[in-house]
Design goal:
The protein is of the alpha/beta class. Helix content is about 30%, strand content about 25%. Helix 1 crosses helix 4.
Length: about 325
């Protein structure tokens, strides 16, 4: 059975000046963040890559990464597939609001994989760099997949202070866990700002300190194939809670962490938190890009990656 990496790449970042931030080159040879995630996933053992995109960015996406990754994966016996998130891909009987312009969130994005992903899979954001450790831990967890226990999920838990931007507030799902490391609650927290006092990194929201050593969700989940059917039922319930003609109908999003949190509270899933000490970075704001470019250059100089990124994997194939 394969283990898939599902990459959510359908969003255009409004805070990034309207550009397709997922396709911004950050590596010395024009690599984008996704290149590094795909490299690390294949190195960890994932053997299928699924891109979730929108039809209107398909051409730009394939020119920037898709065609190149297909060629690389062909040499490594790794399958490539595409899923398409669409604004009007709604449950039966639900009408698309005339003024709605944005897709329905990360839950709908993963739901686009129905019929394409039939194996245990990891989900990541396209514009986040997660580091190698998390992919290894998620793959190891997914290798133990048991069809008789489809409710057993996992997520990578990043240390909050390792995930903050120097250029503005970020939204993070702050995790609470039991003594065995299982998730009990996700507190989706907006506008977390990085602070630094005497060289010590901290975090605050609206001037109030937040524990910078908390584990947070970066939308890196380990899920079972059965979860997609659960997600589909949840999407129907999501619309049952929205009154037609209201502002909520135009802005509400079906978000993966919030839905998983509701399943947790209902006792329908368990989520093992796999802690990683790797430093996250990504392009949330346009000003973040230079930091990301410098960070990848340092990783190459430190020998974490080859300058010719996939040469180590192809050389060992």
């Amino acid at each position: 059975m394969k283990r898939s990496l599902v990459i959510m790449a359908a969003g255009i970042g409004s805070r990034f000046g309207g550009g397709i931030k997922q396709l911004e080159p950050v590596g010395r040879r024009g690599e984008i963040i996704m290149d590094y995630s795909i490299h690390d996933a294949i190195e960890a053992g994932f053997d299928k890559i699924v891109f979730i995109i929108r039809r209107d960015i398909e051409k730009a996406f394939k020119e920037a990464i898709g065609n190149r990754i297909e060629e690389i994966c062909g040499k490594l016996n790794v399958e490539i597939a595409y899923a398409y998130q669409a604004l009007d891909d709604l449950p039966e009987g639900v009408k698309l609001p005339a003024e709605r312009t944005k897709p329905w969130g990360t839950g709908q994005a993963v739901l686009a994989c129905k019929g394409i992903v039939n194996e245990p899979f990891a989900v990541i954001n396209a514009d986040d760099y997660y580091g190698k450790e998390a992919f290894v831990k998620l793959h190891s967890f997914l290798e133990k997949y048991d069809p008789s226990s489809p409710e057993k999920l996992c997520m990578a838990g990043f240390i909050l202070k390792n995930t903050l931007s120097d250029n503005g507030g970020v939204t993070r799902g702050i995790c609470r866990m039991d003594a065995d490391g299982y998730l009990t609650d996700v507190d989706e927290t907006s506008n977390i700002v990085k602070t630094e006092v005497n060289g010590v990194i901290g975090a605050e929201v609206d001037g109030k300190a937040v524990n910078a050593d908390s584990l947070v969700s970066m939308n890196m989940w380990g899920l079972t194939p059965e979860f997609i059917d659960v997600l589909e039922k949840g999407f129907v319930e999501f619309f049952e809670g929205i009154e037609p003609g209201t502002e909520k109908e135009l802005k509400a999003e079906y978000l993966l962490p919030i839905y998983i949190d509701s399943l947790l509270k209902a006792g329908k899933v368990s989520v093992k938190v796999l802690e990683t000490a790797d430093k996250w970075f990504g392009v949330t704001y346009k000003e973040d890009k230079q930091i990301v470019v410098e960070s990848f250059a340092k990783l190459i100089d430190d020998g974490v990656y080859h300058e010719d990124l996939f040469s180590d994997l192809i050389g060992n194939a």
